[in-house]
Amino acid sequence: MIDYHLHGDFCGHAEGELEEYIQEALRKDFREIGFSAHLPLVTEPDPYHAMVEEKLPDYVQLVQMLRDKYRGRIIVKLGIEADFFEDYQSATKRLLDQYPFDFVLGSVHYLGTWHFTSLAGRDRFKTEDPRSVFPRYFEVVKKAVESGLFDILAHPDAIRKSDFFPDFPLLDEYRAVARRLKEQGMALEVNSAGLRRGAGSVYPEFDFLRACVEENVPVTIGSDAHKPEDVGRDFSLVFDLLRRAGVTELALYENRRMRLSPLENYFPGRSWRVSG
Ligand SMILES: [Zn+2]
Ligand SMILES: [Zn+2]
Description:
Blueprint: E1 2-6, H1 18-27, E2 32-38, H2 56-69, E3 75-83, H3 89-97, E4 103-107, E5 110-111, E6 114-115, H4 130-146, E7 152-153, H5 171-184, E8 187-191, H6 206-214, E9 219-222, H7 235-245, E10 249-254, E11 257-262
Parallel strand pairs: 1-2, 2-3, 3-4, 4-7, 7-8, 8-9
Antiparallel strand pairs: 5-6, 10-11
Bound molecules: zinc ion (ZN) (2 copies).
């Protein structure tokens, strides 16, 4: 298996040393993992939510050291999860260009001042109206994709909760995002953390994934683990979903270049063809 979304103790809200994530991945028989610590915020330092800039060189060095140490046992990729801030795109690019990342996850965690994925942002779901929030959210996501800053769109509908969803269909939004991903040569992340964060299913929801498959958008998978035991969490469910959506390949990254590899390589012993 493979997991392209792992954090670690470089920010205040994740725990466990990076090497513990590798140990867990080895125990679970993974072939390849990608670390994706939170890139330092370009808006203002926030050591709880992201690493501080002084730590970024240490992070890069540590992942490179671990990659060499575990060579032959597991493939370790140097990724990063970067926030999209419309007004800070050149600062983000400057930071990303300084290091030889294998992949960059692009994430929308903020709507204006609302940090909706944080603990502090949780209460606001009670007062916001999903009918106005979702269109605003997708405007930001489309800009993030069009920015050209990222390789992979992470947790594509992270704004979704099982009790926070508009009463109108979103298929047009999903298709608009899918088209832009295709145009930019980006991949879509299927992220199992939706199951642990109140969305009731993985990110993105099935219709969103289907819209991307129809546009031939490549797919990566990630657990978004913030502690070692969450490496590969709920991936058998992810596998079933990918298969049901018609995904047959996974996107792999090296030096920010993508190649595709058959899904069946990563789920040994699982029947990947849809029967009947
Ligand atoms: Zn995080
Ligand atoms: Zn995220």
